[in-house]
Write a structure and sequence with these properties.
By secondary structure, the protein is of the alpha/beta class. The chain has five helices and eight strands; from the N terminus they run E-H-E-E-E-H-E-H-E-E-H-H-E. The longest helix has 18 residues, at 14-31.
Length: 169
């Protein structure tokens, strides 16, 4: 089974971690029924070091779960091991239910794009199988107000609903 690492770079309440796991799985289920959970949250060992689980993290997490808090994006890269694609939860994640998707380049540089919790798992899976490229994710996020998966077309009360494009949203 494929797992995609998730690392925190800010204190994260367990409720936010559960929300990520549930919404990411629900988003995957919408496109691929009977999908498995595929995210693994980096935990903290008793000595304070990071521990990337060998299995997926399945909600609900209880209050005793302690995610590893990396001091920076670069420290998160070390914590997740050799993964090319992963997700990071930062301070903004608790406010708007988004995560930062990260691609580690061959030269060690990092590309990032913000995505809704609901789209995290399916986008990471799509990147790994090369169904979509990271620059495409960045471009789509830019066109959606800076967050992949967040539609900029929200109907306002009393106004007609936005037109749907063929093929869905």
């Amino acid at each position: 089974m494929v797992t995609y690492p998730v690392c925190c770079i800010a204190e994260m309440p367990v409720t936010t971690l559960n929300k990520l796991l549930n919404q990411a799985h629900a988003g995957s289920e919408e496109l691929v029924p009977n999908s498995d959970h595929e995210l693994s949250i980096v935990g903290t060992e008793s000595d304070g070091s990071s521990k990337l689980p060998s299995e997926v993290t399945v909600p609900p997490l209880n209050e005793s779960f302690k995610p590893f808090i990396a001091g920076s994006l670069e420290e998160a890269v070390k914590a997740i091991g050799g993964a090319t694609y992963f997700a990071v939860l930062d301070r903004q994640s608790t406010a708007d239910d988004t995560a930062v998707l990260v691609q580690r380049q061959d030269d060690g540089s990092l590309e990032t794009a913000r995505a809704t919790f609901k789209s995290v798992q399916i986008v990471l899976a799509s990147l790994v199988v090369a169904a979509i490229g990271f620059q495409e994710i960045v471009s789509i996020a830019d066109s959606q107000g800076g967050v992949y998966g967040r539609s900029t077309e929200t109907p306002k009360k009393g106004e007609p609903a936005p037109r749907k494009r063929l093929g869905g949203d």
